[in-house]
Structure formats: structure tokens, C-alpha cells
């Protein structure tokens, strides 16, 4: 009798695991639940906000199409989101796109619901809602960017640095781009911070350190007024793009299975601690940090472990990268990065990441070759 694996989330971790199980575990049925009917290559969202650079079809791919290569009795795809869970009873409650409520029973459950951008401002770095909402938000942001003469990017982590760099690359010669950094250095003071700062300056991006946003309010004329902690004159900008803070999508999970920051609490095998046959991967875990290559390793390890447990064997610790790789694109010609403690040449980062922001790799999530 086949066992059922319910996967919550259809992004980098969830879709990867679905492909791996459907290709390699013939006795498992996969039920994939995703709020978004399409996979979103949000790695390129920082460049996609510039009108005319990246086409929608390079960013979004149909999940139904991705799964259609497998026998229909092997999978079910539900457009919707989890609203409740009972790990003891092995059930999750899902609300579908049309508002219907369904209770799903599982033998194995995968938490891959990711994380969303914190704050009230709508930004396209994540697809928190439906496909239609994600496309509409991206297009609206492109229109605002096109008409703007002044930009403020708040938050100087990798997303903030990359977004500011893209704006600087495209508009830095005749429009003002400001990057607000709450710390003393960009990228949280990582060893490549000075390299990234140097690249931003080449693109005429004005970086203000120790500048933490206290509030941001939309004015009647459509501009945004930004007040910084510690007082001083507010900043008024045409386009305000906050990039700070992620909130895990874990509201449907009992707090006893979460960390104090609401991320899934996992063991070395990426099982949720205290729950039977519940696994987690991706941004809902964010260990050792959120990142594409880290998520790929987690997804492959979770899929392998589900197969092992389903066949009566013991799961094994999930192996991540042997050293941390951190690459930040700075526009469409350069970048800053490191492999472990070894800094990478700007041109190397550009070729590995910045040239295309890896949009060509989205095809692997649609045709299944990612797994």
C-alpha cells in the first residue's frame, strides 16, 4: 500500500523534494500544496524590478506543468495554503484558492512554506500570495521604478545590496539611489563588506550606514516619507524598497515544534523535533542561513531520508556544503563574494551569479532535472 507525502510549499525546497520523490520512490504518492500556482525564480527579482530586463516567463513556471510528466495517480497538486496542523493525528488543514477547506492525512509531512518579507510594504522579493498577485506586484513595481527619479532601498543584506546595485547600474548616472544600512557596514560586516561597498560606490549608490528606518508612510502624492531612528530630517522618495527582515510562514504549526524565532526546530536529519515523520527544508529552517545552494542540499537530503524511512531504514544526517559560499551580484557586470574565507574576484562572481542571476536554472525545476 502506497504511503502519502504531503509537501507544503512549492518553491525551491518543496518542488525539488516533490521531483526527487516522484522520480525515485515509486511507492510514494506526493501531494504538493502551494499558494502560488507557479514556481517563482525570485533570486532574479532584484533585477526584474527594472522594466524590460527580464521577461515574466523567465521568472515564473507552472507547477502543474512541472508535475504533469509523472503518472496522474502518483501526485496531487493543490493551490492553497495550510491553516492548521495536528502532528499527533498526522493531518493538516488546507484552504484552497477557491476558499474550500480540506483536511489532508499523511504518512510523511514536509514543511517547505518558506518565509515572507516582514513589514507592511509590498515588495516583490518573495511570492507570498497567488501567482496573479505576484505578477501584479512585480509589474506595479516596474512602473513605479520607471517613473521615479529617487530611490531608497532599506536594509543592506544581500537582497538590499543587490537591489541597490541594479538600480545604480541602470539609473545611477542621472537618478539618486540611496541604500540605508542599520549596521556600521553592509552585509552585516561580512568579510566581503568592503568589496561590496566599493562596487556600490562605482555605481553611484549613496550608502548611509547606521541608518535604521523607524517608520515609512505613503504620502498623498504617492511618494514615501522615511523617518530614521535618532531623529534628523526625514527622507522623501519616489520608490521605497525595504529588504530587511524575513518572517517564517509557520503560523499553522504548534509553537512547541518551532524555535523562539518561529522557524522549524530540526535535528541533524532535518526532522522536526518531537514530531513523527515531519521534515523541514528551506527558509522555514534558515540554518545555517537562508540561501539557494543551502536549500538545494537540504531538499536533496530530506528527499533521501523520506525514502530511507519509507523503506524501513534509518535516516542519515543531511550534509550541506563543505564551506560557506556567499556571492552578491552588484549590477550587470561585477560582484563581491567568497568561498569560505577566500575572497572571489569580482569578475568570477559576475560570471557565476551576476550575469544572469541564474534564471536559466529555473528550467530544472519545471522539467525535473533539478533532482
Automatic annotation (TrEMBL):
Domain FAD/NAD(P)-binding per the UniProt entry, residue ranges: 4-289
Pfam short name (any one): Pyr_redox_2
Protein known as: FAD/NAD(P)-binding domain-containing protein
Residues spanning the signal sequence: none
Stretches of the chain forming a coiled coil according to its record: none
GO molecular function: electron-transferring-flavoprotein dehydrogenase activity; flavin adenine dinucleotide binding
Record organism: Thyridium curvatum
Keywords: FAD, Flavoprotein, Oxidoreductase
GO cellular component, as recorded: cytoplasm
Family recorded in the similarity comment: Belongs to the FAD-dependent oxidoreductase family.
Record's keyword annotation contains Isomerase: no
